[in-house]
Amino acid sequence: MKKRLGLLLATGMLSFSMILAGCGNSSKESGANGAGGASGAAETNDEAATEETQKITVWAWDDNFNVAVMKTAAEYYKKLNPDANVEIEVISNSKEDIYKKLQTGLASGGKSLPDICLIEDYSIYQYLNSYSKYFYPLNDDVDYSQFSPYKVEVMTYNDKAYGIPFDAGVTGLFYRADYLEQAGFTAADLEDITWDRFIEIGKQVEEQTGVKMTVANGTNYSSLFRTMMQSAGAWYCDSNGELTITNNEVLKESLETIKKMRDAGIILECADDSTLAGAINDGTTASVINAAWRVSTIKAEPEQSGKWAVASTPRLNNANSVNASNTGGSSWYVLDNGQDKGAIVDFLKAVYAGDIDFYSDILVNQGAVGTYLPAQEGKAYQTEDEFFGGQKVFAEFASWLPEVPSVMYGKNVPESNTAVNTALFSYLQGDITVEEALTQAEDQLKNQIQ
Amino acid sequence: MKKTQNTVNYNKYGWFFISFAMLAFILFTLYPMIESLSLSFKVLRDGEYVFGGLTNIKRLLGDKIFHKTIGNTFLFLAVQAPLMLMLALVYATILNAPKLRFRTFYRTAIFVPCVTSLVAYSVLFKLMFANDGIINYLLVNLHLIEAPIFFLNDPFWARVVIILAMTWRWTGYNMMFYLAALQNIPAETYEAARVDGANAVQTLFKITIPQLKPIILLTTIMTTNGTLQLFDEPMNITGGGPAEMTTTMSQYIYNNAFVYAPNFGYSVSMSYVIVTLVALLAFVQFKVGKD
């Protein structure tokens, strides 16, 4: 009887090992195809491969923005290159899910990854820093001098450039011209101002109209202080990746400016980004400082057509600070899964580094301000926008784009955001001084990043 | 002889039937556990996880935010768990009264929150406690406060909101356990108590609670376990803010794995801290529950 039991166990073990082997195989296959899931299963078929239709999978996260842009790019490529036997499949998912899948795929040895993935500028360095071998460098194929230098800086690691720069997060001061006029200010009064002047104007606006001058996410000011910092070419770390928090005069001034603004009562504090968007649309704020991609939120309320205008970003008192900055923005990255990259590189080059019509198309339809410099001569940039009272909004953004100071974001942007924001919170509450806040943030970060 | 034959057959079929469950257990529970234990000693270098000795443990000891998140989690546990369990017991006792009308309606009403999705109800609470949410609207219109309170950005109120949300969501769930247990207490005991002249309070403390002890122990351990792994509510209501006042251990683990520079090794080390804490607390609760 003991023997039969042993046999049973052996059978069990055998089936167990077969399941394991099965798992191993399938993941290898999907890894090689770079698609994973259902599409991987379709391509394991040998007959499909002989048809030579190469499938390029792309991961992106916003159906109205970057997903739509990539789909447009696929159409343009088909027009430019009708003979190319490629099929571009854009897979849309939430940003969090994409990062989760990307992170797990990279950690498990570059398995189940797409061919092209959209990654934010703030996040790319942490991936390149740990997993550069799974990313495909493009500096042999692409002329990077045609793109905004600060975007290229972000994607350069160990002297190799990865990815194709996509949208700019170049910032501007969107304001309600009607409210400001009521308070006695014209467009010229807002052009190239300092934050101190902005606060003065803000007080007047609230006095005259009863509307808060500007709006911010009260639980997370990081977008605002990042914008202020980059306007002076400063960041959480220097170009060697060393932390610069306690000795960062620019960051200090940024935090002090936010406190000044808050103490002056000119900020409408929101709990998150959706309430912030709501405040923009229901007219409870007179301005918002944000990137070009905010245009789509502002235009979501057609009744406010003609009431908005845009001016350059306010600057700090710091001598290095200019009236141009950046917040957010992302780029396309090619993942190296051992396959031939010829078709993928050809596609990206033909459309993203060559087709001006494509850039005009996405500017008009998706409001995407590309960072391919020749595209800014495209006609679309000269369109007068009735929503902004006939202002050439995108021409303005394009004119600030070359002014944006380059900084190296480093691999710890999310950690730094949290650490500085936490310290800022205590500083705003009046519990600690600005110096103590900076020390607290730096101590916290030093422990976190090693 | 015949008897032994039978036993062996039972054994054989027994092994066969549990083999599927065992296989799934080994594959999806045991294997990941062992693998993660080894991962907890590894650090990421150039895209590979290599053995890092005690690096992660040293980091755990010096990581102030992690310590803060332990504090936050235990605060939720210490305040919310007793509050909720007592409330559940009170509800259960009231709803067990045979004379109460619309009993089924009340039971359903109190249990319904348990079937809502964690994310959905979290978003609902976030909306209710927003600056222009219904709570502020009511408070201002009743002239209880002058200006809306920024609940989600206030160190004190943000925690209160999370505790309220969790209590709303989980009280009914625990109440169900108590109700089921209450129905197993024979009516004769109560009758005897009444004949002996015991009042309601005496009945509660001398009969109901002692009889419910195993269930109270069970719910306490389940609540402890659940609270130590708290994630959805702070993630969706406050995002861990303001200033990490509501960040829980699980959320910090998530951040280290998926939000910050990737570090699965360190994340796994932290999750072993949770495992240890849960085991320790369960052990203590068993000891206390036995006496």
From TrEMBL, chain A:
The organism's place on the tree of life at top rank: Bacteria
Annotated Pfam families: SBP_bac_8
InterPro entries (alphabetical): Bact_solute-bd_prot1, SBP
Keyword annotations: Signal
Signal peptide start and end residues: 1-21
PANTHER family xrefs: ARABINOSE-BINDING PROTEIN-RELATED, SUGAR BINDING SECRETED PROTEIN
Protein name in the entry: Lactose/L-arabinose transport system substrate-binding protein
Organism: Kineothrix alysoides
Automatic annotation (TrEMBL), chain B:
GO cellular component: plasma membrane
Record carries keyword Transcription regulation: no
UniProt keyword terms in alphabetical order: Cell membrane, Membrane, Transmembrane, Transmembrane helix, Transport
One Pfam family recorded for the sequence: BPD_transp_1
Bilayer topology annotation: Multi-pass membrane protein
Domain ABC transmembrane type-1: 70-285
Transmembrane region(s): 12-34, 74-97, 109-128, 160-181, 264-284
An example Gene Ontology biological process: transmembrane transport
InterPro entries named among the record's database cross-references: ABC_transporter_permease, MetI-like, MetI-like_sf
Subcellular location: Cell membrane
Predominant cellular place of this UniProt entry's protein: membrane
UniProt keyword Transmembrane helix, yes or no: yes
Recorded family membership: Belongs to the binding-protein-dependent transport system permease family.
Protein name as catalogued: Lactose/L-arabinose transport system permease protein
Organism: Kineothrix alysoides
